[in-house]
């Protein structure tokens, strides 16, 4: 049997994972993950970036375009407009049994405007009120007097693996958790490190006449402080099993959704390997 129940197996010295939310808003989440390793965190990061499906314009039918922007450039611009994605209500086009496109796999966004005006992403009218451009203020084209544009854009689910327009994340990054130590025996309190730190991690406390580490999580390990300290009193290291993991999305999905779907994908992949090995072992 391939069942794996011993939590101590991975990594040896206790691999219980501990996750804390450092900050979160509608489009961004920063997590502190302890008890993980680089391959796991990086796999999760890669899946968030390129394997979590999101909506983007894939086909554009241009009926009229009097503007000075070429049809293909306009189609490309439409492709890059982030679109709110409801993963429950839509299926990937290649999994649908329709021949062209249908409401199960595609959402149509209509545009019909007459100049003079600047046409924005907010002028697109979606057939599905849940699937609309994330922002209304992305300029698409400029129409002069009496110029007209009329088109239908078809948005479908896709993966960042195929095209960057389907990447739900604008940032998917991690860094090892910084550990900064100041050796007070060596430190001459010249305060150069606090002055030079570009991230405001260190502070010189005049009253106590010492260097304070005010915000270690902001440290990007540039080691400017280490280089500036002539007496080598300060050291910056990364904690090997602890990470600061940041996901920022284009608004098509929430960062929590991206992480959840990415974990499901990773779990499915692992299940496939387990099933495969079980079948082969028998
Ligand atoms: Zn379909």
Characteristics of this structure?
single chain; 282 residues; alpha+beta; Gyrase A, domain 2; RNA Polymerase Alpha Subunit, Chain A, domain 2; 2 domains; four-stranded antiparallel beta sheet; 12 strands; flat; disordered N terminus; binds zinc ion
Descriptive overview:
The longest helix is centred in the C-terminal third of the chain and has 27 residues, at 255-281. The model is unreliable at 1-12 (pLDDT under 50). By secondary structure, this protein is α+β, with helices and mostly antiparallel strands. The protein is flat, with a radius of gyration of 25 Å. It folds into two domains: 21-51 and 169-275, RNA polymerase, RBP11-like subunit (Gyrase A, domain 2, 2-Layer Sandwich), CATH 3.30.1360; 54-166, RNA Polymerase Alpha Subunit, Chain A, domain 2 (Beta Complex). The chain has helices spanning 38-50, 71-79, 192-196, 224-228, 255-281; strands at residues 18-24, 28-34, 54-65, 106-114, 117-120, 125-126, 139-143, 148-158, 169-182, 202-205, 210-213, 234-249. The strands form four sheets. A four-stranded antiparallel β-sheet has the order 1-2-12-9. It has a four-stranded antiparallel β-sheet with strand order 3-8-4-6, covered by helices on one side. The protein contains five helices and twelve strands. The structure holds zinc ion. Residues 96, 98, 101-102, 104-105 line the site of zinc ion. Zinc ion binds at residues 96, 98, 101-102, 104-105.
């Amino acid at each position: 049997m391939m069942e794996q129940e011993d939590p101590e197996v991975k990594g040896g010295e206790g691999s219980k994972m501990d996750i804390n939310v450092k900050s979160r808003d509608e489009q961004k989440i920063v997590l502190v993950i302890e008890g993980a390793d680089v391959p796991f965190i990086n796999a999760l990061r890669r899946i968030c970036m390129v394997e979590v499906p999101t909506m983007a314009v894939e086909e554009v039918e241009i009926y009229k375009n009097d503007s000075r922007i070429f049809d293909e450039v306009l189609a490309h611009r439409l492709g890059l407009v982030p679109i709110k994605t409801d993963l429950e209500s839509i299926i990937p086009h290649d999994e649908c049994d329709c021949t062209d496109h249908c409401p199960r796999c595609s959402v149509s966004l209509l545009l019909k405007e007459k100049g003079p005006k600047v046409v924005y992403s907010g002028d697109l009218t979606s057939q599905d009120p849940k699937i609309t451009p994330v922002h209304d203020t992305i300029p698409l084209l400029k129409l002069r007097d009496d110029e007209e544009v009329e088109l239908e854009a078809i948005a479908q689910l896709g993966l960042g693996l195929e095209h960057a327009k389907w990447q739900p994340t604008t940032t998917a990054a991690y860094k090892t958790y910084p550990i900064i130590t100041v050796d007070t025996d060596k430190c001459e309190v010249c305060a150069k490190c606090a002055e030079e730190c570009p991230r405001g991690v260190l502070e010189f406390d005049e009253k106590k006449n010492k260097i304070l580490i005010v915000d270690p999580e902001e440290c990007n390990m540039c080691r400017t402080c280490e280089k500036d300290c002539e007496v080598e009193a300060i050291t910056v290291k990364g904690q090997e099993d602890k990470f600061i993991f940041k996901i920022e999305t284009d608004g098509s999905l929430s960062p929590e959704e991206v992480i959840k779907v990415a974990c499901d994908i990773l779990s499915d992949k692992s299940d496939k390997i387990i099933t495969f090995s079980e079948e082969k072992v028998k």
